Amino acid sequence: MTPDELLEVFHHRIRLPDADAIPGWKQEHDGLVHRSYVEGPDGAGFVETPRGLGDDPDAVIAGQVEFFRDRGLPFEWKTYAYDEPADLGERLVRAGFSREERETLILGEVDRILERPSALPSKVRLREAEGPDDYRRIAELTNTLWDSGLARIVEQLQGEARMFPDRLSVFLVEDALKGPDGPAVSAAWIRFHPGTGFASLWGGGTLPEWRRQRLYSALLAHRARLAKERGYEFLRVDASEDSRPILQKLGLHAVTTTTPYEWTP
């Protein structure tokens, strides 16, 4: 499939029906706005508008800010480069949002990944996360790489795996000599979106001293094989500039860019 065809399928199967909403979050459609959120001390929200913003975009934006301000919740408004209006990002900044780092939406067919050989070096071991200790090691890795917060990652992954075991698989790579007594040197997970044909790939961070040893590619191929076994056709990645060229080299396509805008009460 061409990049344009892949984006069209993604838009209709994932964005319009909110098929990649965070499991357990409340989902609502407020006019043209697709909104999801969870309340509580650590609550947060997420907004996107795949159908555009109508004739008065600023009023729609103000309505969402009011909604989350009333609940004391921070939220992210995720924009895609093809979203309307074309100046949506500028309007969000004027409304008090902060622009975060842009990512590239990567899409592709599972079979393209499986066409290429990929193997781990013998000095490491790849396995599925099995319990709290593994999730804590993964959180320590992601916090080291991205300052993502230990407790949040442990709670998110462990809770999601417990509540939706058929929709999430988490993997880690460890030093074969140290095993579970050493740090996770790389980790990644895959979310399945039933009825869409899409599985999405997350994580993939690797400790600096373990990079350039094809760990990222091996984790990618491992998850692609799992997706194939479960009958999924397509893979989706929100890629950083570090991972984008690797994914394209492996046969996936950059179809558009996404930019998150953050608002805090």
Quick overview of this protein structure:
It contains eight helices and twelve strands. With 265 residues, it is an alpha+beta fold.
What do these coordinates show?
The protein starts with a helix and ends with a strand. The longest helix is centred in the first third of the chain and has 15 residues, at 57-71. Helix 5 crosses helix 6 (150-163). The protein is an alpha+beta fold. Strands 1, 2, 3, 4, 5, 6, 7, 8, 9, 10, 11 and 12 form a twelve-stranded mixed beta sheet that branches. It has helices at residues 3-15, 57-71, 88-94, 110-114, 132-146, 150-163, 215-229, 244-249, and strands at residues 26-30, 33-38, 44-48, 75-80, 98-99, 103-109, 124-128, 168-175, 184-193, 198-206, 234-239, 253-263.
